[in-house]
C-alpha cells in the first residue's frame, strides 16, 4: 500500500513538472500582463495626459447633452454615421472615452474599432487611437488572446485549464503526510537546492488559492463554451428596433426611457446603433452587481420611438447569472477596492517566481544526478 501511494505521488509530481516546464513561460506572461492591466486605465492616462479624467467637474450622466454633442462632433470630424458608438460613463469629470465600430465593408469582416476620447463637453476630440495600436490596449490583447485573435483566445482558454491542473497537482504533491509545521518551514541554513525547493513550495502554497481563482475566472472569460457548460447564465436578449421608419431619437431621450425602466440603476455604457434596425443598448449597474465598469444588466430601447424592447436584469436571473456577474471582478481585482487590486498585482508576479524557482530546482537536481556519471 505504501508503494502504491508513493508511485501515485511520483506520478502527480511528474505531471506537475512537465506542465510547469511546458506552460511555465505562458503562465509568466499571463501573470505579468495581468498585473499591468489591473491599473491599465490609470497607466494609459499617465501616458496620455491630454485625455486624463481627473478634472474637478461632474461627469455626464442620464440627462446630459454631452452624448448627442459628441456624436455631432464625430460626424463633423468625418466618422461614418453608419458606424456604432459605445460611450463609457466613468462617473468622473474630464475626458469622455468612447469606442467607435466602423461599418463592415460590404458585410465582410468587421473593421478594427477605434478608441476616441472627447472633451468633457463633447465638443472636441482629444485623442483617437486604434484598439491594439497603443501600449495598454496592446498589453490587453496580448493577455487575452496572445495577439492572435480568436485562435489566441482559444489557446489562452484551454491552456488555462491545463494551468489549473498544474496548480492542483502542485498542491497535491506538496500536501504533508506528517507535520504541517515542517511542511511550511523555510530552512535558511539548508543547501541551495533545498532553499530553492522551499521558496517554490511556500510561494506556491500561499498563492495557490488566489491563483486558482484568477485562472478559473480567466478560463470562463476566454471560453464561452465552458461558461455555458458550468454556469448556464441567462442569455442577453438580441433585441431589434420594431420600426424601420422615422428619424432616430436623441441619446438623451433613449437614456430617459432606460432610466424609467430601471430607476435604481447606475449608468455605465450607452451604445448608439449604426444600423437602422439596431436598438440603443444601455448598460447599467443594478444594486448587488459587483462590477462598476462592466456590469451585467442592460436595457434595450427602440431607436425610433423610445419604446423599451427588452430588459436584462441580473437580479432576475438564475444562479448562473449571479455567479457570472462575479467572474470579471474576481479576475481583474476590481472587487474590494484598492487593497484587492494591489493584491491582484502582487499575485500576478507569483507565476514568474514559481517558474524561476521550479526551473532552477529541476536543473540542480539534474546536475546532481548526472555529476557522478561525468566523474567516471
Automatic annotation (TrEMBL):
TM ranges: 21-43, 155-175, 203-226, 338-360
Keyword Membrane: yes
Pfam families: PepSY_TM
InterPro entries: PepSY-ass_TM
Calcium recorded as keyword: no
UniProt keyword list: Membrane, Transmembrane, Transmembrane helix
Domain of life (superkingdom): Bacteria
Protein name: PepSY domain-containing protein
Amino acid at each position: 500500500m505504501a508503494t502504491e501511494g508513493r508511485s501515485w505521488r511520483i506520478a502527480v509530481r511528474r505531471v506537475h513538472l512537465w506542465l510547469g516546464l511546458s506552460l511555465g513561460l505562458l503562465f509568466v506572461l499571463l501573470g505579468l500582463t495581468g498585473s499591468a492591466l489591473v491599473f491599465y486605465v490609470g497607466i494609459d492616462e499617465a501616458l496620455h495626459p491630454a485625455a486624463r479624467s481627473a478634472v474637478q467637474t461632474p461627469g455626464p450622466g442620464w440627462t446630459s447633452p454631452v452624448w448627442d454633442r459628441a456624436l455631432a462632433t464625430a460626424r463633423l470630424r468625418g466618422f461614418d454615421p453608419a458606424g456604432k458608438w459605445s460611450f463609457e460613463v466613468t462617473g468622473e469629470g474630464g475626458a469622455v472615452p468612447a469606442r467607435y465600430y466602423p461599418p463592415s465593408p460590404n458585410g465582410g469582416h468587421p473593421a478594427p474599432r477605434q478608441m476616441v476620447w472627447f472633451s468633457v463637453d463633447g465638443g472636441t476630440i482629444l485623442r483617437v487611437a486604434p484598439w491594439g495600436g497603443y501600449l495598454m490596449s496592446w498589453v490587453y490583447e496580448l493577455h487575452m488572446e496572445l495577439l492572435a485573435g480568436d485562435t489566441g483566445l482559444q489557446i489562452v482558454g484551454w491552456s488555462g485549464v491545463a494551468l489549473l491542473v498544474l496548480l492542483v497537482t502542485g498542491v497535491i504533491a506538496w500536501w504533508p503526510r506528517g507535520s504541517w509545521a515542517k511542511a511550511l518551514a523555510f530552512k535558511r541554513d539548508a543547501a541551495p537546492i533545498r532553499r530553492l525547493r522551499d521558496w517554490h513550495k511556500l510561494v506556491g502554497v500561499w498563492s495557490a488559492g488566489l491563483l486558482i481563482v484568477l485562472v478559473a475566472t480567466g478560463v470562463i472569460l476566454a471560453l464561452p463554451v465552458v461558461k455555458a457548460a458550468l454556469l448556464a447564465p441567462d442569455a442577453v436578449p438580441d433585441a431589434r428596433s420594431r420600426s424601420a421608419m422615422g428619424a432616430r431619437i436623441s441619446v438623451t431621450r433613449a437614456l430617459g426611457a432606460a432610466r424609467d425602466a430601471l430607476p435604481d440603476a447606475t449608468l455605465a455604457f450607452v451604445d448608439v446603433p449604426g444600423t437602422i434596425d439596431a436598438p440603443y443598448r444601455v448598460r447599467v449597474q443594478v444594486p448587488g452587481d459587483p462590477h462598476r465598469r462592466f456590469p451585467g444588466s442592460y436595457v434595450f430601447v427602440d431607436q425610433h420611438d423610445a419604446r423599451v424592447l427588452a430588459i436584462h436584469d441580473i437580479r432576475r436571473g438564475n444562479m448562473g447569472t449571479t455567479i457570472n456577474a462575479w467572474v470579471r471582478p474576481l479576475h481583474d481585482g476590481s472587487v474590494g477596492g484598492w487593497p484587492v487590486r494591489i493584491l491582484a498585482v502582487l499575485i500576478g508576479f507569483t507565476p514568474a517566481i514559481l517558474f524561476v524557482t521550479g526551473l532552477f530546482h529541476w536543473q540542480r537536481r539534474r546536475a546532481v544526478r548526472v555529476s557522478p556519471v561525468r566523474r567516471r
